[in-house]
């Protein structure tokens, strides 16, 4: 990472407003200065990834992100190094890192700078970012690849699925989501488990026949959509349930809407078929 010619210029972060009180107690990570950034951290990034977080006493949100990163660094037991940059006290460093707002996180891997994010995120998403940094560093021969961590509830769910006990697997995933509501793997696992439970032992051909004969029967249409999802026919399944939304009110409409959302969770959110169906559902509801 080469430092720009305007290294000595200050960064204008006046939009943050008036200074606030300094955070209580010591902050995690190593305080970054112009000297240790160039003399220590660049060379250190050849051995393990470095994550720098730019923060300000005027931004409580940025202080929260520093705390989250400190917690994750502690959990990862030295596999990466956390440095913190007070943009008010170290404008030269902030300028060198091209900081435009706080919080702003950047990784340094083998002396190369990799911007990460420049807004506050919850711990689960920051965890995913750090895991990607570790994986990228490992690909470049820096540090080791992140070890996959399996939650105990997920282990319980997988064992239950291997035994064909869908109810126990569902309960395990729900227990994990109660503890970690935004865990994407748990959300996906629960949706897959519920789908397998609903389609277990179902005669797909007969369900499709019944769905054609009774187009407005919610239970049959829900079953048919499940069969279509299992068979890989995403668009027909989404269209089948979207057609029902304007036909019903109250609890019945909510039932169809909730099932659609469950089915969306089974597919990559970036899939254009999901994006299209989500937009159609929003239009139908509002």
- Low-confidence sequence ranges: 1-15
Secondary-structure element string: EHEHEHEEHHHHHHHHH
Mass-distribution shape: elongated
Number of strands: 5
Question: Which secondary-structure class do the elements indicate?
Answer: alpha/beta
Strand content: 5-15%
Strand count, sense and closure of the main sheet? 5 strands, mixed
Give the helix/strand layout:
Layout: E1 30-31, H1 34-44, E2 50-55, H2 60-75, E3 81-86, H3 91-96, E4 104-109, E5 112-117, H4 123-139, H5 152-162, H6 166-179, H7 184-199, H8 204-213, H9 218-230, H10 234-244, H11 250-264, H12 272-285
Task: Summarize this structure as a short list of keywords or feature phrases.
TPR-like_helical_dom_sf, Thioredoxin-like_sf, alpha/beta, 54% helix, Glutaredoxin, 5 strands, 286 residues, disordered N terminus, Thioredoxin
Quick rundown:
54% of the residues lie in helices and 9% in strands.
Folded structure, characterized:
- This is Thioredoxin.
- InterPro entries: Thioredoxin-like_sf, TPR-like_helical_dom_sf.
- This protein has twelve helices and five strands.
- The protein is of the alpha/beta class.
- It has two domains: 14-139, Glutaredoxin, CATH 3.40.30.10; 152-285, no CATH class.
- The protein has a five-stranded mixed β-sheet, sandwiched between helices.
- Helix 10 (234-244) packs parallel to helix 12 (272-285).
- The radius of gyration is 25 Å and the shape is elongated.
- The two termini are 49 Å apart.
- Mean pLDDT is 88; it is low at 1-15.
């Amino acid at each position: 990472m080469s430092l720009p010619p305007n290294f000595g210029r200050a960064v204008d972060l006046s939009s943050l407003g008036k200074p606030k009180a300094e955070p209580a107690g010591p902050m995690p990570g190593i305080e970054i200065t112009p000297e240790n950034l160039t003399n220590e951290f660049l060379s250190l990034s050849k051995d393990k990834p470095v994550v720098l977080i730019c923060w300000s006493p005027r931004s409580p949100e940025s202080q929260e992100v520093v705390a989250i990163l400190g917690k994750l660094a502690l959990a990862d037991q030295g596999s990466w190094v956390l440095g913190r940059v007070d943009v008010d006290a170290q404008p030269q460093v902030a300028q060198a890192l091209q900081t435009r707002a706080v919080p702003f996180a950047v990784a340094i891997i083998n002396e190369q700078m990799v911007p990460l994010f420049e807004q506050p995120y919850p711990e689960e998403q920051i965890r995913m970012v750090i895991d990607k940094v570790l994986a990228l560093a490992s690909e470049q021969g820096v540090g080791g690849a992140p070890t996959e961590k399996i939650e105990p509830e997920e282990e319980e769910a997988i064992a239950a699925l291997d035994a064909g006990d869908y109810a126990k697997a569902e309960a395990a995933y729900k227990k994990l989501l109660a503890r970690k509501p935004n865990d994407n793997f748990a959300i996906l696992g629960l949706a897959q488990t519920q789908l397998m439970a609903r389609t277990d032992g179902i005669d797909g051909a007969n369900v499709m026949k019944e769905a054609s004969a009774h187009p407005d029967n919610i239970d049959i249409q829900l079953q048919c959509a499940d069969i279509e999802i299992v068979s890989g026919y995403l668009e027909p399944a989404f269209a089948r349930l979207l057609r029902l939304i304007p036909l019903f009110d109250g609890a019945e409409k909510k039932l169809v809407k909730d099932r659609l959302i469950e089915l969306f969770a089974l597919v990559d959110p970036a899939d254009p078929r999901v994006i299209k169906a989500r937009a159609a559902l929003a239009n139908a509801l509002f």
